[in-house]
Amino acid sequence: MPSSSINKDLQAERDKCSFDKKEFTLWWVGGKEKLKEKEDLEQFFANDPEFHNDPPIHFLSHKELYEETIRQSTAIFRKVRKFHEDRGNGDPSNYMSILGGLLGNGIIRQGNPLGIHFAMFVPALLGHGSPEQQAEWLPRALKCQMLGTYAQTELGHGTFLRGLETTATYDEKTKEFVLQSPTLSSYKWWPGGLAHTANYCVVMAQLFSKGKLHGIQPFIVQLRDEETHMPLKGITIGEIGNKLGMNGVNNGFLGFDQVRIPRKNMLMKNAKLLEDGTFVKPPSQALTYGTMMFVRVVIVRDTAFHLAKVATIAVRYSCVRRQSHINPDHPEVQVIDHLTQQYKLFPSIARSIVYKLASDNLWQMYNQVTAELDQGNLERLPELHAIACCLKAVTTADAAKSVETLRMACGGHGYMTCANFYNTYGFVTAACTYEGENTVLLLQTARYLVKVWNQAIKGQPLGPTVQYLTGFIQSKNSRHPWIDTVPGIIKALQIVAASKLRLAFEHIEQRKKGGYTHEEAVNLTSLELAQTAESHCRAFLVQSGFEMIETLCQKLSAPLAKVMRTLGELYAYNEALDSTGSLVRFTTISESDINRLQSKLESALLAIRPNAVSIVDAFAIPDILLGSPLGAYDGNVYEKLYEEAQKSPLNKEPVNQSFHKYLKPFMKSSL
Q: 435 an active-site residue?
């Protein structure tokens, strides 16, 4: 039944392409060298039987899944090291290039328990460790001679860091810290790889010295014996259990009972503790949270790649699947010809591109601010923190909705585990919570916005991401004019954000005058504040996407530039239509303006339609990483679905033993 030919409908779609797909791919992956390395790595793994699961992993038990994941994770490290050594580059940090994004998640479908080692443990050493500490631990960590994780979240506390209960008390006599979990709720809970994989950990704990509390500080702690892997004295450790997704990650719990570590194990690049117990504050407490900001940048980038993956699956399937008649005198049409289907598919393509551009923008900002921090300049750190918080919150929330929309766009077949939407949904919906719960992050952004609003009304200079507030205050218009262009949409969305911020600020002040404390007033205004932060982020995304696409188009061929601009316009139109309620409140947009906007969105969908398959092809995601019969490059969906069905263990025998044990006696009995 397998077919080696390309589905004729899918091929017809590719024949319509109006742009150079290779040009798009080179931009998407970052140039010729990265594309070659990507293709070489993918081919390297595609031809390796060690990474072909038979049976598929969704038929394994929880214990079998973890053991298989560990086998594959260690095999990947060995093979990636060999891959780079054969090419004259033995840098072990290259392992990081496949742990995140699509390659690592495509090979190890339920998450890599070693991922947190490179995603957070190594960055924590770099971000918090002194040069001497890095010299001691970093070489071993990069070679995986020690395996680490990052333990911050506790059973009773997550995003609210000041509420963490784990303590590290300095003993001046022995020059040691004593780590303690004073309550069950203080047990570390959720760190990836913690349960049975890692033998070291960066632990965030409340530092006590000379009877005083000095806040959350990072400590490196050995958890297990390096030879036997048995937990060390005073360590209680294990796995938290099965989850909605990412069940290969080996998330764990960790408790301390009078665990002693030497003074040098407090990471002291920022804050320091002297031998006599004197605490030396860091230049800014925010420096302690640098690892989290780095991870949030990575999350936005990975969200773009996850969306590209599921969009590829859904678009290809929608071209193969035929359903219903548009013209009763003609055959059933491809599902993608229905405008409603295009509206389910194409905005996710646009989001993936805008999110990728936003992550590039955020990455540049992160590197600039990090360089400024090294020179002692902390001025832009709050701005970076604020935009990273809201970008992580908005992109992950929208991506989770998009994955579900794309799954349902594939009908019943999208519900199949083998369609591989559930894996991606598991990754993106988890990202809505880890590294900062989304609502809490929006409120952190809002706190920054309230602060800069105070600065703006005093005429003080503002950072680039909030510069629009100055113009809003100077304009003094109660309802701002609607302009029917993408720059006009950007301006309007900024007006929405600024107007919501003005109202939230006024309501906080009114409540304070009514007798509430500042904290109580903020809580009572928190719905407005979260909505303000979201509006600020959406305005940033549309602006960033538009400006970066325009800059990019100066270097692209005219056909590809046209496609990119259309995708950027679709994103802007969709965001504006989703914000019509707010636009009506704060701008002069009319019913006819909204109707015109709707028409522009529909025209953008129709303009993208002929190139839809070629755009997702240009994401260059091979079948081994898509892992879905619905999205296979050759489009032979039904043959591949049938092949997947044969892999079920229940199909290994014509009659299951349950018939003789239960069904037959049941049917023979008299009820």
A: yes
